[in-house]
Specification:
mainly beta; two-stranded antiparallel sheet; 3 helices; elongated
Amino acid sequence: MANADVNDMFNDIKSESSSFKKKKFIPIVEGEYFCKIAKVETNIRDVKKDGNFKARVYNYTVEVMPENKKNLYNYDDDGTKCTTDGDRYVGYNFRGSVWRFLEPQEGDDFQANNAGNKGYIYFCEALGVKCPKETKKINGKDVEIHLLPNLTSDDIIGKPVISVVKKGRKWKNNEGFWKQFYDSKYVRKWDRPEGKIDNDLPL
């Protein structure tokens, strides 16, 4: 290509116009989010802290729903106090977990940890699953206890909940950098008129 042709080409480029607008960064913040439980996995673990226990752990993922747009969230932008509506977070996922400590059966060598199941009771209540009460004689005394159900995926997946999101525990990645995610610390009941949310339906 001749130099004149090259110059003409660059002259044409100089006459072109373009622009760029930086999208404003809005961080995730602690607060309450309207969600559905989109995923759950479960396994049994030995728990050696403060005793010798065994627990079934439910690791769940919540997904923020369109109804969240009515919420307002405050955040700090380089020293400036700002507010955003909840539509910004629709589709976000947060992970959480809840533990159900198991009762030892004959031949088991682990201990009971009834007090550790308070969070599991609240989880069941958030899902609308009842934990009936009964009176049981313990050490010669009548004690009222909750009967804890064995939750299945049908009891959990698609259920509408209000997720209370906070910063999780810090951890170090393979490169040696500290990371910290936002986790679903616990869920509360969301009395959504339409009830259960079909996971196959798009947002």
